[in-house]
Amino acid sequence: MSAIDLDEQQFAPLIDLQWWQEHPGDRTELYRRLRDAGRPVFVRTSRLGSPRVRGFWAVGAHRDVVSISRRPDEFSSGQGTQIFDQTAEMRAYRGSIIDMDDPEHMRLRKIVSRGFTPRMLTELRGLVTETTAEILEEMPASGTCDFVSAFATLLPLRIIDNMLGVPREHEQFILRATNVVLGASDPEYVPDQTVAGIEKAVSQTSEQLIDLLKSIAEDRIAHPRDDVISKLVTSDEENLTPQELAKFFILLIGAGNETTRNALSHGLLILSAHPEQRDRLMANYDELAPTAVEEILRYASPVIHMRRTVTRDGVTLTNEQDDVIHTFNEGDKVVMWYPAANRDPAVFENPETFDIERKPNNHLAFGGPGPHFCLGAHLARLELNVAFQMLYSRYPDITAASEPVMLRSNFVNGIKHLEAAYTP
Ligand code: HEM
Q1: Ligand 1 atom 18, closest CA
Q2: What is the rounded CA–CA span in Å between residue 107 and residue 96?
């Protein structure tokens, strides 16, 4: 049996979406095997991109994920960042900066960064606090709720909507649209799970999102306000075209919503499983919150993978001794598995232990160092920091009261439902 055959059998679960939904407890072992391979492992897939590419190379070591993220000239994002290639139609909606290479990526990132300056963030603290207070007051008086829909979904959604200037009346539509665009592989959100069915659902939803955005953008050009859309369409410097703005809007709705939602839900779950650490955190919040938030991000790893495509023959990965461990060919797909890297014992002491005081904590939950490092990382940290302080202050005994229902996805580490119990 060749090395490739062996890899295929061991690592087939990486693309078995049902496995991801039904066996979350087995992920740790799969990530361990991926790291222990000591080199990229090949996973064959039947849904092909180009005829030359018959699968992808999976990478789980922290060192390799860092190295790949740092070398965008050799590991490109421009051909897509998820395992399967998207059709040209899907790329028309989803091909925002995350799926681009420099110089185009840098040009657009510079423009959209206007919405994420330190000044904007300072101003946002007040908004995050007010929004969290509002959501906490709306939580059911019965003392039980689905934490995902009652809290975790609403906070990032209302923050993004507010930043973008989307009126509250569209909240439920944006929520449904996010679930379709980011949770397309789950039948709860897209019942027709054929390739055609998924594409149809995503394009229809994206069209509706674009229509909504265009009307908001036109309004802001005519009547600028203090929101991100106004900054992106009315500056004296270069502005986004309507098509670029539409794609960025869809990216933000996905990137900013789903990820933070899952970090919040995983956070409650993890802190419920570690009550002693939760109590310690609450007793000394200001001092411990920064490291606790990073540890929740490391432990939860809300984004499971990002893909790159090799730009030329002969691109290599090396180990600590600088020995070549793998040589790639042009067009090879390389998939980085962040949760595996975030539990790498070469970097993290006792990596399977949750420790709110972990320091240093060089996790890769926001991606590796490089041009695509998460643009919303500071905002996400701010939301987590404010949310847990206010949540436990308002409901000190809140705890996860069921097993989580996981999203059917190997891309987003999503929790769809999580019961919580608290004294109202
Ligand atoms: C816990 C929450 C979050 C996590 C775990 C997360 C994770 C990530 C990851 C892994 C990447 C890709 C990095 C790469 O390809 O190398 C990324 C990119 C990105 N994220 Fe986040 N993210 C979060 C929250 C947010 C928020 C709140 C926003 C905005 C409101 C945001 C906006 C973006 C954007 C625009 C990119 C693309 C950056 C580029 O390609 O230059 N993210 N994020």
Answers
A1: 374
A2: 12
